[in-house]
Amino acid sequence: MTDQERHIAVWNNCLQIIANNIDPQKFATWFKPIRPVSLEGAALTVEVPSDFFREYIEGAYKDLLRMTIRRAIGADAQLFYLVRPVQNGDSMVLPSEKASSPTNNPVSIPVSQPSGNPSPFAYPGIKRVQIDPRLNPAYCFGNLVQGDCNKLGVSAGSSISMSPGNTPFNPLFLFGGPGLGKTHIAQAIGIDIKERFQDKVVLYVTGNEFKTQYMDAVKGNRIVDFIAFYQRIDVLIVDDIQDLVGQGSQNTFFNVFNHLHQKGKQLIFTSDRAPVDLQNFEERLLSRFKWGLSVELTRPDYETRLHMLRSRALREGVRLDEEVLSYLAARVKTNFRELEGTLTSLLAYATLGHRDIDVELAQSVTGKIVSESTSEVNMDTIVNTVCDYFNITRDTLLSKTRKRQIVQARQIAMYECRNLIPSCSLSTIGSELGGKDHATVLHACTTVQDLMSTDKLFRQWVEDIEGMVAVPVLA
């Protein structure tokens, strides 16, 4: 046996011992993914999918592992871990493995004459400036889960990445509630542009940061340097643009906007509300926000939430039971951030408590984050709520009439059943709501999604009905 084969044989011997001492399912979950790497003297190194994985088996099976390797190698046996995340399938790309932080090439910026108060961006006399794009490599397109909730934003972002500043989507204005992925999409565009066009100067800032920098520049008598700095940017990403309040900062930003847009530079903004709903903004600036494409990001549906959980679990090197993933996707519905936080909490409880990740543990963890409503959500509840909202009878809703209001009410009922009761199949929903087939239900759900993104009144109807239906809400 060669030295290269010895570590494999030793670890296979260890696996046989471990398999005889624990439950087969636990063996498949926690030991089959481990791969032997090397054996140097009495030191065996094995590869595990993630640091979470290592912490779990060290906590739950420490004594068994110690006994096993001593039996296989000897009394002085040692076990070392090489943490290398799983990268196959739909796994998310880890920055440490696949990406490094994007950087900009140094640029020349005109600097005003030195004064007693230096510029916040360049020291007096320095003409070559290294601009940090401030992009997080974790926020790449490869780590972005796409669904109906963000499909238009992702598609527009991909188009922009291939030809920044030369598409109809300039500016791109992404808006929606917290945790829906606005920052992720905006930064993903910047990262993709840097990969395709290394000479492009990309910068990510928040609205509040721009305002603070402006105020510092005014105090330091460096407003000329401030404007010159921003006029040198090829792709400007401003997150939370709603925080850019104040006449002076908005006036300066207006000038920066005009310069960049006229030069064919790409502008990307995010906000927690639509341009029309922004308060305390100059009308001329609001009109420019509407020049390009405004995209609303909505709450992820069940399938998108489930996909996101699968991807994140694989990133952590853990293959969770589908029952656990389905339970989490059905319970946490508000946004990606809270869904990811719930999964992180579940993994932490399993690690610290040395417990298997099952539905019972998932119920315990989500119970601390998500509270149950006193009313049970079922198809009758949704149908009755829709009927009450539109002041129609149940028989009318389920009839074959093609009146527009009735058809839309029926489509909303189908959409809510699919979104709020993930256990219901399309066929079941169609059967209960007028004897429709699954294709009709799928078309209805797609129609509702499309109308929500283009018709403000229709979107309000759907949101009102969701608010009236008793669903689990975040505590």
List the helices and strands and how they pair.
Blueprint: H1 3-19, H2 24-30, E1 35-40, E2 43-48, H3 51-60, H4 62-72, E3 78-83, H5 95-98, E4 107-108, E5 128-129, H6 151-162, E6 172-175, H7 182-196, E7 202-206, H8 207-219, H9 223-230, E8 235-239, H10 247-262, E9 266-271, H11 283-289, E10 293-296, H12 302-315, H13 322-331, H14 336-353, H15 359-367, E11 370-371, H16 379-390, H17 394-398, H18 404-420, H19 426-432, H20 438-454, H21 456-468, E12 473-474
Parallel strand pairs: 2-3, 6-9, 6-10, 7-8, 8-9
Antiparallel strand pairs: 1-2, 4-5, 11-12
Helix pairs in contact: 1-4, 3-14, 6-7, 8-9, 8-10, 12-13, 12-14, 13-15, 14-15, 16-18, 18-20, 19-20, 20-21
General description of the model:
The protein is 51% helix and 11% strand. Residues 86-99, 114-126 and 471-475 have low confidence and may be disordered. It is flat. It is built from 21 helices and 12 strands. It is α/β, with parallel strands linked by helices and 475 residues long. The strands form 4 sheets. Strands 7-8-9-6-10 form a 5-stranded parallel beta sheet, sandwiched between helices.
